[in-house]
Amino acid sequence: MSSTTKPRTRAGKRALQKREPKLEENPKRLLVLRASKTSQVAIGALRSLARLKAPLVTVLRKRNEVRPFELGGEGPLEFLLQRNDCSLFAIATHAKKRPHGLVLGRSFDGRVLDMIEVGVESLKTPEQDTEAPKRAGSIGSKPCLCFLGDAWAKVPHGERLRNLFLDFFRAYDLEEVNLAGIDQVIVLVAQSPPRSVLETVESDGCGDLRILFRHYLVRLKKRAEGDVRLPLVRLEPAMPWMDWRVRRTRFASDALMRQTMPTQEQLRAAAGSTLPRREKNVKYDPARLSKVGKVYLPRQSLETLELAPSARPRKRIRTGTSSATSPAGTE
Amino acid sequence: MEASSIQVDLGHLKVIDNRAVEEQSDIDARASTAVQRLVDELFQLPPDTAATEQVGFGRVVRLPAPIERLPREKPLPKREQLQTRWERFAQAKGIQRHKRERFVWDETSQSWRPRHGGGKARPSIHSKATEWIIEDKEEGPPGRNPFRRRKGSPESRKAAAGPTASVKSTKATAKRDRVREAQQKLSERMKSAKDALDHQLSIAQRSTASMGAYDRRIDGERDHRQRGKSRAGELNTPSQYASERKRALQVADAVLQGIS
After folding, report:
1. B126: enclosing H helix or E strand
2. Which chain A residues touch B31 with a CB distance below 8 Å?
3. In whole angstroms, what separates CA A165 from the centre of its chain?
4. Chain B contacts of A163, Cβ < 8 Å?
5. Of A238, A288, A138, nearest in space to B57 by CA
């Protein structure tokens, strides 16, 4: 936020304070918007995503001229992200060349960080789920995330893609969780494209990757046998279900990613006070006239101690003196 | 093996199964296994009893820190640069600036009134400060002022008030002087630390059987041994003859007088 506007009202001040950079950040909000051309499928997918992300979601009803993958085309998107204080976005698009598109991404400091465009190949929305129309996870509960498939690790940028989806769907950062509230899981399955396709894909490597989006409700049942303290998990299919085909991608450079993830040291520095460090190992005399320091020397080795210059003839030690006082080796 | 291919990140409630999924029909079973593993690990976390009681249902557990790192949404907040020494001190001490409240509680009207200005809070008429009528219980000639009588004589007032400000201040001054004197002494002692070192060195130098006669000295080390003062002998030079003669005559005088 490089906004230099000064609030004129108290409410305005509070509103700006809410969106200031913080040490402990607010949960990331999702901005849901439609590009200038959309399709029913794309909008259906968008709506179901918005419902899944509620209440951390801001839905824009009107169409917007956003073409994030075109050169310099992310400007309007970044403006909308800043204005709505969102850092995740989902855009429904439709074009003859790329039908039923969905652009999913995240931003850092109001700038687009990572984004991918997927084509929605099949979609089952909650409205179509005639079997159990009322089934849904409780709104706003933190979903479990399950990543299946070997493609996440195989495909270049696959791990980044997984990281993006984790960021996208994780909702809140929790320190504590009520186990009774674990009621939904989002399953993302990555299927590698056939080898022939992999070789022809030029840019990012995860083009043509097939991602299956599945949403289940988690039912915890009592176990009849075995360790009865651990419940038995049963998954019930809940909509939306989507099959995606990855089209265009744009990932941030590793250097930029490092910038977005501060080190522990930087976090401490940001959290710490501005006081200068406490002076250590320095003492003053009571009148503060002089500084007293300690000089640390390594322990002296008595083995190699040379008590008298070896070149000179040694004085004979009288027999009366105890040998205990003369270190070994002098005799 | 299945167990090793599943990785759990409890902090994110995330579970990964790295094996390939060939058929769509496999997804249900594979997801169930993975989530079962996640739930097993969650239920093995120690429960937070206090939080659970507060919620009243279920079982609250404390999650470990997430393993996978995610980018921040915004950069770290910039630290406010504290310019003055006072600001830094105030921060360290937790001193916060706050304005004096404009409104104060008014006992008389039992309401909040402005501290100053129109309609301001006033002390109660029943309070001592604004006592305007008292009963004259004392017997005596009429016309005596009961307020003045209650106030007492100037001497008794003085005695009741304790030491005056000037006395207190003298005491404080005396104390301050004592402290200063002690500080002064200390500082003098510190200034003569070099002398003290020399003294210590001279003792050390004399502390061998030979009184330090055969000790080797470090480069630049002065000889601090105190030597006995040789008695100043008379100089045997012609300029001293007069005084020597005078002394000899004095002795002779004394002898002669003593004898007589």
Report:
1. none
2. 146, 148, 185, 187, 214, 216, 235
3. 10
4. 68, 70
5. A138
Q: Does B197 touch chain A (CB under 8 A)?
A: no
Domains of chain A: 26-258 (3.40.50.10480)
Nearest CA in chain A to B6: A148
C-alpha distances out from residue A116 to A24, A42, A158, Å: 27, 15, 12
Structure tokens, A252: 């941030």
Residue A48 to residue A178: CA distance in whole angstroms: 26
Tens of pLDDT along chain B (260 residues)? Answer: 455 788 999 999 999 998 888 888 888 899 999 999 999 999 988 888 888 888 878 888 999 999 999 999 999 888 777 778 888 788 778 888 888 888 988 877 788 988 888 888 776 665 555 667 777 776 767 777 777 777 778 888 888 888 878 888 888 888 888 888 888 888 787 667 777 788 888 888 888 888 888 888 888 887 877 677 777 776 777 777 788 888 888 888 888 877 65
Dmax of chain B from CA atoms? Answer: 150
DSSP string, A113-165: EEEEEEEEEEEE-GGG--S-TT--PPTTPPPEEEEESSHHHHSTTHHHHHHHH
Which of B73, B79, B88, B183 is the best residue to mutate to test the A interface, defined by the most A CB atoms within 10 Å of its own CB? B73
B60 touches chain A (CB under 8 A): yes
Residue of B nearest to A236 (CA): B28
What does the block give as tokens for B190?
A: 């510190």
* A-chain residues near B36 (CB < 8 A): 232-233
Please report the sign of the dihedral spanned by the C-alpha atoms of residue B138, residue B144, residue B150, residue B153. negative
E strand spans, chain B: 6-9, 14-17, 60-62, 103-106, 111-114
Find residues 232-271 of chain A whose CB sits inside 8 Å of chain B. 232-235, 237, 257, 259-262, 266-267, 269-270
Nearest-angstrom CA–CA distance, A150 and A191: 7
